[in-house]
Amino acid sequence: MPVTIVIGSQWGDEGKGKIVDLLAPDMDIVARYQGGANAGHTIAWGDRQFVLHLIPSGIFHEGVTCVIGNGVVIDPVALMEEIEQVEALGFSVEGRLLISHNAHLIMPYHKALDKARELWRDAEAIGTTGRGIGPAYVDKFARSGIRVVDLLDPNGLRKKLKAALDEKNAILRAVYGDDGIDVDAMIAEYVDFDRRIDPYVTDTANYLAQALADGKRILAEGAQGSLLDVDHGTYPYVTSSHPTAGGCCTGLGVPPTAVDRVTGIVKAYTTRVGNGPFPTELTDDLGERLRAEGREYGATTGRPRRCGWLDGVALRYTARLNGFTDLAVTKLDVLAGMGELKVCTAYRLDGKVTDRFPNDLAMLERVEPIYETLPGFEGDLSSARSPEELPSDAHAYLDFVADFVGVPVSMISTGPRREETVVV
Ligand code: GDP
């Protein structure tokens, strides 16, 4: 099994961190292919818990090498902090963490622009985390970005930073009325990263090509979720990169022919953080209960997540988009005791029933969900270790979802900890 991709099938926060951490011991390499430090991947084992933002979720398994691919945008300040935190937990990182020399860097002016633009957009704000990720991708595609490799050449870096800041400060001051950023202080800070980041930097695409040739197993870890894909998601309320399967190939430099498993992570209900249409959103007490029981607050920002029923129409759309070979259903325990359960199986759009997911914003805002109602289930699911130990109505719920989407369920997560998992 050369490359397995693990992808969020909804709007992110599906519990990818836990599933990647679970699959990691069977892998040689875990590689992140897109996004930045906005995503928080929560890993819990025993009584310990850690939220990873940039480092791949395989770092807590000593035999696994972790790769941050060229498709990721890296905030060096956040990365260095995260490395220190992981090492403080007793895990060695040097030699086990490789960073692509082609990955782009998030600079202080990207964060300033991110925040200034959100303020400027006011009511039309995207709901970004203000961490500079969008503006860093803008510079990447405008071909004015600064890459990890640039950190290794202090003189060249000084020139590039100066040129970039001349432009960004002009924009920040003239358009957004911001004070701008001090060039010398920033240069001093970033030139210092040369020394600190050097041991980790390599040509990761070449490393992965060699690993594939040597028969090693690679797990590619996506951040956010498929419905946040900049092309296929609910634009403009999306992220600036490609969480979908194609993003793995471009974001790591691995060929599509090397991929033989694409696991979709499906939260047993739906959540969404930030703005944008959400057809199955529950704004009543039930939505509150899902948020409370599922602890649906952002791992990075603490923002409350919007909650609702599982949207089968959206899930079938992302299953086709990514070519899911199997589904890992998370947070099934949260649905226990919620009474009857609903799954959205079609939309009513302008009086007509459709099973197509319209990723056009105006259409998606108009759809009304049509639900299939299923019996609820009760009890503590967390001790189940085999499918037979789950309540029969929990089975029925999963069978319904698998049949509707046309993809089998391979794993069921019934709690945040590694142990609380059923492998089918
Ligand atoms: P990710 O970004 O997709 O990794 O998801 P997050 O880490 O933002 O959110 C998932 C949250 O749910 C974390 O706090 C996990 O510890 C927790 N979690 C993961 N799987 C389960 C599960 O099966 N049940 C419960 N109750 N919590 C879970």
List the helices and strands and how they pair.
Elements: E1 3-8, H1 16-23, E2 29-32, E3 41-45, E4 48-52, E5 65-68, E6 73-74, H2 76-88, E7 97-100, E8 104-105, H3 108-121, H4 133-141, H5 148-151, H6 154-174, H7 183-197, E9 201-202, H8 204-213, E10 218-221, H9 245-252, E11 259-267, E12 270-272, H10 285-293, E13 306-308, E14 310-311, H11 312-322, E15 326-330, H12 332-335, E16 341-349, E17 352-354, H13 361-366, E18 368-374, H14 392-405, E19 409-413, E20 421-423
Parallel strand pairs: 1-10, 1-11, 2-5, 2-10, 5-7, 6-8, 7-9, 11-15, 14-16, 15-19
Antiparallel strand pairs: 3-4, 12-13, 16-17, 16-18, 19-20
Residues 8, 13-18, 39-42, 44, 299, 330-331, 333-334, 413-416 line the site of guanosine-5'-diphosphate.
In short:
This protein has 424 residues and is of the alpha/beta class. The protein has helices spanning 16-23, 76-88, 108-121, 133-141, 148-151, 154-174, 183-197, 204-213, 245-252, 285-293, 312-322, 332-335, 361-366, 392-405, and strands spanning 3-8, 29-32, 41-45, 48-52, 65-68, 73-74, 97-100, 104-105, 201-202, 218-221, 259-267, 270-272, 306-308, 310-311, 326-330, 341-349, 352-354, 368-374, 409-413, 421-423. It is built from 14 helices and 20 strands.
